[in-house]
Amino acid sequence: MFLKNTKYVHLAIAACIFFAMYACKSIEVPSLPEMEPVPETFLDITDSSSIGDISWKEFFNDPNLVYLIEEGLDNNLDLLAAFERIEIARTQYRISKGALYPTMDGIVRYRSGDIRPNLLGGTINGDRNVVNRLENNFIGFQSTWEIDVWGKLRDRKEANLEAFMATEKGRHLMVTNIVAEIAKLYYELLGMDIELETIERNIEFQEMALELIKIQKMAGRATELAVQQFSAQLLSTKSLAFEKRQEILETENYLNFILGRFPEPIARASSLLEIKLPYGMEVGIPSDMLLRRPDIQQAEHELRAANFNVEAARKEFLPSFSFTPYVGLNDRSLPAALKMPGGLTIGLLGGLTTPIFAQNRIQAGFDQAVANNKIALYNYQQRILDGYQEVSNKLLRLDNLRNVYSLRDEETAVLLNAVSTSNELFRGGYATYLEVITAQSRVLEAELNKTNTRIQMFLTVVDLYRALGGGWN
């Protein structure tokens, strides 16, 4: 009877293995779409070096800014939270790594009553020779080890490792963004300082012009309308000064927020005009740029993790093998086991699990893994396109801003001379008060536009540095 049962068991095992192997072989992983090759150069710039390779401490040549960035990287709350997310991913990796090794459990089993044999010659719980001993009172240790024959557990481990690396690159991306944000706010503050100085200087000019027009009115050479026009212009310019002070205050508070501290004055350079533009024309070829950008590196690790998950999901169709060794004291009563040497039990159980009736569930998991793999690929391609487009736009913008700044510098110089000329002509009676007001308004607008253009040049350089993957090393 036992031999016949053994024969049937062997046949069942062989059938299970054949069925699982056939099912796994029939599940082919769909091929992923091919990626479009990345252009070899950015705007005909082929230098292999890149400003993204420069440390932010060397790239930004202002000690005040360097100090602010250091404080931000130490105290920014979002960055501190990113460290904790890395620890979560590290824990998941350790869990998947531990699945490759056996587990050890302590077991205490107590049973009262007899085990009744069933009609097949064993016990009601299974074979007499095995279960009858285990169903007695037992105290000892039991280990379970799933043999990773097909590499499924290793694929899960590698997938979690890549997910952990993606989280680490996510922290690099956050560092890059924080460095860039602090630098941009710092340069905006310096630019607003110049704008406020410009407004205050023009207030002085307009106050002198107002006094002049009042004298002209007393001499009968100007009307009350002219006085009112000059007064209205002066009031408008003074209101601009208050608006600019409020803008400076809000920018300082926001920068303090990023630094993880309560509002306080921001120490900064005396003038934006005295700071050298932190920029070199060495941009690098696109392939080098892609190696530095943290968001693209993060997407690459996510794509690798998705590939491993697909392989692990495909191997779910295969049978799994496990061994369960145990050792302990086993008898009808624990006191008897402790007294009798025969109470010591050492054994080894083997298991074979074949997912015959779980094909739909496994197929659904496999289809989901394939879909996630395609999404990861599309996301990777999207990051590359975004990076290339961003760098190209910043390069063109910086080149155009240089030309704009040069022209606005000339425009400001011409209009400053025009103000002096209009004042002299007005004193001599050769120009109207409207011409003087127009000259003063235009020079204020030109000076503000010039300062804003210089601010945009610094902000664009910072964006280009970030776009090339600088700031996180």
UniProtKB/TrEMBL annotation:
InterPro entries: MdtP/NodT-like, OMP_efflux. It comes from the Bacteria. Pfam families: OEP. It is a lipid-anchor. It is found in: Cell membrane. Its main location: membrane. Keywords: Lipoprotein, Membrane, Palmitate, Transmembrane, Transmembrane beta strand. GO terms for molecular function: efflux transmembrane transporter activity. GO terms for cellular component: plasma membrane. Belongs to the outer membrane factor (OMF) (TC 1.B.17) family. PANTHER family: OUTER MEMBRANE CATION EFFLUX PROTEIN (PTHR30203), OUTER MEMBRANE PROTEIN-RELATED (PTHR30203:SF30). This is Efflux transporter, outer membrane factor (OMF) lipoprotein, NodT family. It comes from Cyclobacterium lianum.
